[in-house]
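Check out a protein:
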Amino acid sequence: MEMVAQTINLLNGHDVDATKVQAGEVQTHVLLGLNPGLINSSGYSWTADYVTVTGDLCADLLSNIASEQRAKVVYEYLYRQIEDKKVRETIDFLLNREEAHNQMFRDAFNKVQETGSNRDFGTTKAAKMYFSMSNPGPNTFATGETNAPSFK
């Protein structure tokens, strides 16, 4: 947040005079000055509701991986829309940090993936079965069997 806020401040010329703000919501600049607002894109304040913790390490790590991936997508969208070299450098740095976080969470998940909710608590063979309907030909079970019944 600090890097994004600082980039915005630099682009705005560090001017907190509401009459000189060229873009954005004037009220935000008046109320917050040069400080980042801890609000989401709809204007709702940050709360602990944004933190999702289950107490299960596998579930929480997978949630963190997904969050990092979503952040990367947002930065990539921003990067494609912005032509300013310095802003792009900032976004590139943030993208690289998200990728580093994502990789750390993946490495951690790989170490604990046979624990917690990822264990097979009464899961049957049928629960892990799937049929490939994408290509013509015999359906294939996840187990690699090719003698699955045809559903034509």
Observations:
- The two ends are 54 Å apart (CA to CA).
- Residues 71 and 77 are 10 Å apart (CA to CA).
- Residues 148-152 have pLDDT under 50 and may be disordered.
- DSSP finds four helices and no strands in the chain.
